[in-house]
Amino acid sequence: MAKVPALYGLMAEFETPEQLLEAAQRSRDDGYRRMDAYSPFAVEGLPEIVVSSHDKVPLAGIVLCGGLTGTLTGLVLQWYPNVVGYPLNIGGKPYFSWPSFIPIMFELTILFSALSAVFGMIILNDLPQPYHPVFNAPRFDLASRDRFFLCIETRDPKFDIDRTKDFLIGLDPVDVTEVES
Amino acid sequence: MNEAIRSGLNRLQSSALGAGAIFLILSGLGWYLNPPQFLHSYLVAFWFWLALTLGCLTILMVHYMVTGRWGYLARRPLEAGSRVLPLMAILFFPILFNVPALYQWANPELVASLDLTHFKLEYLNARFWVVRAVVYFAIWFLWIYLLNRWSVQEDAGGGAHRYFDRMRRLSGPGLVLFAFTITYAAIDWVMSLEPGFFSTIYGMIFMVVPALLGVALVVLTLTAFSKYEPFATLAEPKRFNDYGNLLLVFIMLWAYLQFDQFLIIWAGNLQDEIPWYVVRARGTWGGVAVALFLFHFAVPFLLVLQRAVTRRNRVLSTVCILLLIMEAVDLYWMISPAFSPKGPQLSWLDPVTFLGIGGVWVAWFAWQLKSRPLLPLHDPRFEGVVTVGT
User: Fold this and answer.
1) What is the CATH architecture of A7-55+143-180?
2) How far is B263 from chain A (nearest CA, A)?
């Protein structure tokens, strides 16, 4: 007996960004939380609608920690050789000449913040991701050309295959398809 | 123009003018009673309000060079602020007529004791000083006049592109000239108070100060307007986010330049340069320096990093008021130790001159602001942004 593939979600296809924006807003108003939108370019206002509060990512905290680690690294890297490892009298200044440490501490703060932002983003996005179910949707390649897609996922607590399908059809899309996971 | 805004500006103008006039009369009294103290207080106050005026010109020119939506709402307040320059030219006279009283190098009895290089002796003389001051004001006047005039013609011309192109062509050289004039003005009017000191970063610090003040003025003006249409619709959180980002840039640039100047002089440890910092890092002046680091950099920096702050105009305005106050402290810290190296000697004339010039400045600003439409309705780049009547 052939295995029935599990469902990832329902995908609605729209022709304009305005339609997508309205559809996303109405889905949100209707109580759907687990959804995502796909468009060939950034649609202003869309992320605020689609991303629900429990999807908030801890990227800011990661970058802050990275930055502070950089500051500390810069301090230790200069403090150790100058004060402990190989102290030299330079111009009669104290070994711990903190004003001259600040530029390096600053640079390392920026470097570590930037690196943690990039790698944090990659990890939080589950990248690299060779397989994603949305590509099972027919015509989904148009999402990088001229069509706009809204996918309500099965993990949404309000998801019900028939009712959600009716709801999406009510949003007047070009097409609604089931996406296999 | 919205009637509520007009009457608000009328009220602001008359009350600011009244307060300014009273404080200026008190300043005049101070001039009579204690001429040196008056001049010392007046110089700091004058720099603050002149920096605000020039900051409006700077941000305006920056907008013409880089463009962007943030300039649509900011243009009129910035233009009005730049048109206060005639007032600042009038208020320059007390300094102009007291060069020998203010500057040691202009005092024939003191100049021999200063041990200046040959070049400084030649450069710092009262007559040449006056000529240079006239040149700075002439350049500022010309740029402000032309940018404002073309802006009016653009409005009358119903969206013709040529005025924008002209303003843009003028702004590039204008920014270069601004860098030169403000550097020389800072050296002439402030740095030469301690004629032994020299620093090439000094002029740049005095370039950042106006820019910071200019953006703060825009935020405060637009926040006050944002209760009324069409600003209630147009002054979105996004726009304040833009201004907040500009503030972030200038706060960081200010800290960067102030620290750089300190670091270079501290590392060099040369006897010509360090007295400037020795005075400013000791005792109470040192405490002021720490306060500047905390409240001119650390606190506002951490605040404007957050969208929750920059997207709320009232919160952002509070940050701007903090920055305005700290900027006055910053100028006080940079200028006043020349007169009282042992520690700050606050005089009643410090706030009085500051509020005197400030009151008249605000009145003049309100008067200029209401004399023209509050939005550049015929800016060809933004045609159709707004259909509401102003």
Assistant:
1) 2-Layer Sandwich (3.30)
2) 6
